[in-house]
# Entry
Amino acid sequence: MVETPAFVRPPLVETSLSMQFATLAKLQNVYMGMLWSGIRERYPNVLEQQALPPSFETFGGMPPQMGVPFLFPGAGSRFWFISSDDHNVFQLQQDRLVHNWRARGNPYPGYFNVREALKEDVRALSSFLEQEDLGLIQPNQCEVMYNSNIVAPIGADTHKSLGSISPLWSKADFSVGKASLEGSVVQLRMLLRDDDDQPIGRVHVSFIPQFVATDLSQVFALEIVVRGRPKEPTTSSAFDFLDIAHDVAFETFMAVTTSEMHEAWEVARGE
Amino acid sequence: MASSSATLKAPNTNWDNVPQIAPRSATQKPLLTFGKFLTAYDAGPEIKWQASALKKVAELLKLPVDWDGYGAPSIRRDAAMFALEVLETVMLPRTPLPAIVPAADGGIQIEWHEGDIDLEFHVSAPYVCDLWFEDLRGAEPSVSEALTNDFTLLRSLIALLSKR
# Structure
């Protein structure tokens, strides 16, 4: 794992580490309640959501346009187990577990701490599955996601300033006759290969202009997702992939944002 | 399902070199060269395989344990979703509709038996697949391969099937 510098004022608002695994068909909603009783001290609050469809990164065909955007019946629910300070969420459904960290005004604790929190979730789930004879966690896909809200340098109109924020956009100001730039979207997709040059996943990057709900200020939402398949269907191999994915995500973040923005976020010294 | 009309192309002919037919009047668009017509023909109309496949998979997912009388497990939802997503990336507009059948290991098997080609794609679980191909005319070599995340071979065999 590469040593990643910390920023004093990072734009990160949310990160998640996730493992998709072979469906645990016996993990019905009633068992989710039983699991919660064992982790309630860490996660006193709970929400029930619709399950997410699975995602797969495959190669050799056309890039999937939208995947299979629904679930067949019987998928059960997705549960959010939420910490008392609202920062941490352990999401669980029959074929996926996710640990989210959300900013909520507090500084980012760093990848290692979020990884340890996921490890604790995996330990709790594995132990419960064994106790109730519900199966094993056999990961077939992992994902690291970083969401940042980026504001342009002071005095600039953020939605017109993508060129100051990202080297992916070269036109400082773009207009055609009476039509002038109001906002822009950049999306890119990169193929991720292993040391043997075999495809193992993809990196998805998007810059999308958005407005902050509380004050309608302009931001660019930068989302970086690194998704792929672990070498083996084991949690240990899944964590190895997450470590690689984290490094790739950080390197991507540094590459798709300008040095001007890095200075604005201020690299922390002595870390 | 076989194509409703036969293609008129002779093998190994570069139809792009066939002279273009002259327009019948100045207001009518010129007719395409045969090569360009064939490209347009192959591009569409699209066979709506998704609706048929989704309906079949939904039926298979309702099968109970021991659906075959030999103790087979019920069909895995994740295997079915994976199979559909792979098909989404490799099916071409004129690919015939496949047969979709349950497998004894709880997976899904997708088969074509068209144009003297037998092509079978078996998904046991996400990223655990097998591919078999045989050309009954003997023009193409047989294939028996385990596949994980790369479906280049499946796509090329479907392209071959789609042109028969």
